[in-house]
Write a structure and sequence with these properties.
The complex is a heterodimer of chains A (208) and B (149). Chain A has seven helices and nine strands, in the order αβββαβααβαβαβββα. Chain A is of the alpha+beta class and 208 residues long. In chain A, a hairpin with a 4-residue loop joins strand 2 and strand 3. In chain A, helix 3 packs across helix 7. Chain A starts with a helix and ends in a 6-residue tail after the last helix. Chain B is an all-beta fold. Helices cover 0% and strands 58% of the residues of chain B. Chain B has no helices and 13 strands. In chain B, strands 1, 2, 3, 4, 5, 6, 7, 8, 9, 10, 11, 12 and 13 form a 13-stranded mixed sheet that branches. The relative contact order of chain B is 0.30. Classes of the chains: A alpha+beta (208), B mainly beta (149). At the A-B interface, helix 3 and strand 7 of A face strand 5, strand 7, strand 8 and strand 11 of B. Strand 7 of chain A pairs antiparallel with strand 8 of chain B, so a sheet runs across the interface.
């Protein structure tokens, strides 16, 4: 299984090298999201999914449009706005696009965000969203690797004070089937723009 | 001197565009509130509300306290963006200089509500009480919208 996956990755990499050096798979024009001068390679990490199983980000989102977002469920502002707009945009696009898009949420607040809390919260947006959890050190290492900075936690006033907030990247990274993020979404992207971009990006995914 | 003013003095204003959800406008003393709304909270853990505060007088005023009858605690939170990462900090006192305005908006400074006793749905109201050092106390019944509105 793992060997087959690894082989497939090798084949994919070879296929990409075989193409001309321009990111052959990435050519959509008219994207609302800002395109990066230098693409971000898809990170290879394994965290725990809300059902308790290990989730290898690189392997298990292979070939899909993957939206990666770091946040926490107590977040009242940036996180739910992003996720609600993505969910609503996907709703308008229908199953053809939906199955080509994976939304992966990684908590930056593993203390309060248990697997159950994450699952219940994500279900309010879309039960298909993947929720991942690891130690803060693991998650910070991933964020550092993506140049997103670290999750900084507001100091608790007392040990019983669980009302602290957690800093996190406000960006959503969109990885395409070439295992790169060429486009990122800052806070404030409207639902209509999500819908437009997800439809364009999904065209890069072949029929299942 | 704290004056109590209630939603009877307030009225709804519609922003331009037919699809735009309602916002609240209110005026009391030297303070004018515009663009007020709250998001329909996802869980009882936290919610957020937003508005622009204008000080119409020539004397400084300060938002010294916020609360809500449906939340165990409320506070003003400032969001700082640095290199893509958002950090937040509690703002104890929010000065509103004479003739100026301060805007709370999604992705920026917001009023955060914690441990809600109920979850107002889109179309309902979220009660929020603001205490100003000069203008006194006012309770706003903010129109509630969905997070994707």
């Amino acid at each position: 299984m793992t060997t087959a996956r690894a082989l497939r990755s090798v084949v994919l990499v070879l296929a990409l090298i075989g193409c001309d050096r321009k990111p052959a798979a990435f050519n959509p024009s008219g994207l609302a999201g800002p395109t990066l001068g230098q693409a971000i390679p898809k990170p290879d990490f394994t965290l725990t999914a809300t059902d308790g199983s290990p989730f290898n980000f690189r392997q298990q989102t292979e070939g899909k449009i993957t939206l990666l977002f770091f946040g926490y469920t107590h977040c009242p502002d940036v996180c739910p706005v992003h996720l609600a707009n993505i969910a609503a945009a996907l709703q308008t696009l229908g199953p053809e696009v939906q199955r080509k898009v994976e939304v992966v949420f990684v908590t930056t607040d593993p203390d309060r965000d248990t697997p159950e809390v994450i699952r219940a919260w994500l279900n309010k947006f879309d039960p298909g969203f993947v929720g991942l959890r690891g130690s803060l050190a693991e998650v910070n290492a991933i964020q550092r690797g993506l140049k997103l900075g670290e999750a900084s936690r507001e100091p608790q006033l007392t040990p019983a004070d669980t009302g602290y907030s957690v800093g996190h990247a406000a960006l959503v990274l969109a990885f395409t089937p070439d295992d790169s993020a060429h486009v990122v979404y800052p806070f404030g992207v409207r639902q209509a723009d999500w819908a437009k971009d997800l439809e364009l990006l999904a065209k890069m995914v072949g029929p299942a | 001197m704290i004056r109590g003013l209630f939603a009877g003095l307030l009225f709804f204003g519609w922003s331009c565009g037919k699809a735009a959800p309602p916002t609240l406008k209110a005026e009391f003393g030297n303070i004018r509130i515009t663009g007020g709304f709250a998001y329909s909270p996802i869980t009882q853990e936290s919610g957020a509300a937003y508005f622009t505060i204008r000080n119409t007088s020539d004397k400084p005023d300060t938002l010294v306290s916020v609360q809500s009858s449906i939340a165990k605690s409320a506070m003003i939170h400032g969001t700082m963006q640095s290199e893509g990462a958002a950090g937040m900090a509690r703002i104890e006192r929010l000065p509103i200089p004479p003739g100026e305005e301060v805007t709370l908006k999604p992705g920026g400074t917001h009023l955060m509500l914690e441990q809600l006793s109920r979850l107002p749905k889109p179309g309902e109201r979220m009660p929020v009480t603001l205490v100003f050092s000069r203008a006194g106390t006012v309770t706003l019944e903010l129109p509630v919208r969905a997070y994707n509105q």
